[in-house]
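Running this now, will post back.
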Amino acid sequence: MVMNSKALNEIRRRFTVDNTNLTCIRGCYVSEKREIISMFKLPPVSLPPEEGDRYLSLFKKALSGTPDKNLVEIPFANEAVGVSDEHKLLTALRDTAITDDDMAEVFFQRVLAGLPQEGSFLILLAHDAYDVPFRNHNGERNNEMSDEVFKYIICAVCPVKLSKASLSYCAADNLFHPSEPDWVVGAPELGFMFPCFEERAANIYSALCYTRDPAQSHEGFVHAVFGSEPPMPAEEQKEIFQEILQDTLAEECSLEVVQTMHEQMRDRIAEQKAERNAEPLRVSVPEVRQALAACGVPEEKADAFEEQYTQRFGAGMDVSAANVVDVKQFEVRTPNVVIKVDPAHSDLVETRVINGARYILIRAEEGVEVNGVKEQGWLFKAQSQLLYAYAEATVPKVAVVTGDAIGQAYVAMGGKAMADVTYAWP
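Update: finished.
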């Protein structure tokens, strides 16, 4: 089991001034020289609302992003639970509500050991006790009844950067004056929650790790805090999956095949998203083989795909669908041109060989704009028809250019690129 979207949203809603029940907040400010400048402990109930909201916002961002991409589950081996130093420390921090000063310092030192060497950081740690509302078999919630208290800790590692000198408004004289640069806390780069919240209860066998950049594995941080191997980053999964498709399908890796696979995965992701209780969608080799077969890819190519997939990802390893398919856009790229299309309308793009040259064609019946200027629909259609006629013609084509030869009209009238012979007069 992994945390689904519904469970994530339930915990995220905790981090508002009205809903929070944080019992303690701790912080550790680390300089660029890896020196601890300050360690502090704050009682959340005594913080001014505006200040408390700032801390809550940082913790909430450590639970933001896409599951399996920005939010990755870090499992503990069965033999490590309650035994390894890392798991015992995390459990003790949770059980003591992070009130022990020595224990908190040990934790901050471990986080510091796993952080990158550049920049200043603020390491924030909080403890929460969530009185989990009761839900009946129909999923109806009853806030007055509860049979579970979910206790957990959450950590956010935030960069601290020097702001730029600027002008600031002064209400006293109703003017703007220069303001001095100051050290400002940014959004978290990484963080975690322990334990995970699954089936409306604590799962001490895993933690949920956050990374702002899905291309980063934060190997040092994961080793130091969890004593585990980090999973393959989302961007690396995507690159490897694409490489395997290209290498094994070779000439069969056409636009149509990629389109079909993209559409099938996008539809499945949309179905899974509609089921809020569902776990993040995973893609298995049999599912990819089925999609390839539907596209007419020979079985030997599918066999080659499965072999390379097993070598690169491991036997029985499924990858996240969100990591191999961009559900927000469909992109076609050449060395000189990039075409981005709404995935729902990727069928508007096709490739075709005309007179031995390969073209990317986009069906455009209306609403065409060039640099924000609307094309005249009838003229665009006429130009397209004429251009197509020239391209399909099998007789020799001769172009005579008189005066200026510029713009789309030049191309549509069979310019130098289309003609076999071109004459300029005068």
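The first strand starts at residue 22 and ends at 30. More later if anyone needs it.
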